[in-house]
Fold:
Amino acid sequence: MRNHKRNLFAVFGLVASLALAAPGMAIELSASQAILIDFQTGEVLFEKDADLAMTPSSMSKIMTVYKIFERLKDGRLQLTDSFAVSEKAWRKKGSKMFVAVNSRVKVEDLIRGIVVQSGNDASIVVAEGLAGSEDAFAAELNETARELGMGNSNFVNASGWPDADHRTTARDLAKLALATIRNFPDYYHYYSEQSFSYNGIKQGNRNPLIYRDVGADGLKTGHTEAGGFGLTASAIRGGRRLVAVLNGMPTKKARGRDAERLMDWGFREFNNYTLFEKGAKVSTAPVWMGAAGSVALVLPDSLTLSLPVKARRKMVVKVAMNSPVPAPVKKGDQLARLKIEMPGRAPMEFPLLAGEDVERLGAISRLAAALRFILFGEAG
Structure:
């Protein structure tokens, strides 16, 4: 290798499977805003005005329940604990759990009252029980939103009651849904319950997908006159989970139809492909003046991508590096970049690390290597 500084691109004979929603893969929806995300990879499979500010309506109750789950997980709260019902909560209009004023309601019942019955009253009971007032609780919601990277959201109440300053986006709601599923596996099951009775009043879950054979197990519907009908949903098929957020649909029927179509489309048109396991050798890099002539290049984590099924033969994988690498080399040093290119999608890059240490040659061995390079062009 006569020019050890030249940039080398090693193209693998690896043609795997994918490209994100390329032109021609679109799906028509009546929703004004929508997003579909693969839970494992975090890749966005579809989006439509996903960063446009919108009225979240009762979908914002997912954040209220998130704060309950947080306290249950860290032990500050128990399912058998109870909160007092204020007159404000009791008088709240809209969808209700029908709690009785001046009574106390168990936390587990409140969870079901919010998740299944979409109770505005139950949401206020939780806000006042956890933070003292709904305003103080809204400040907590906004702090959590910042922690979750929900940069386009602002909460002013616990229920999603219409307010010009109460807003979010489809992408932010998807982040909240993903965090709920990931962080609270012991409590997420409440979102799949189809009905709940309280005070002798039985109500069904408003999520249309959990009654259909689509693998749905959550999360929450919403509706306001200004924002239309919305749904934050998740479904699992064949061990693969997708999360969808849709809003601005004109009717309940359209909400169920759009959500089911989007889920079906995502499961049908995309699949997850593991290109490399964590620690597996991706390639090798020649080492200059090293005790070994080369070093393995590995990824810091396994690499799994969500790819359109039809695009499997159009992906090109390359390794880019400055070659050879001068010794010494320490395990974990970034030595190269894995580059993935495919139609209809911006190129992706991932760091490639040294898989082991390579010591530098001693003085005499370095002199011999330099002579070999001068005489024969052999690096190492």
Remarks:
- The chain has eight helices and 18 strands.
- The chain has two domains: 7-16+276-376, 33-249.
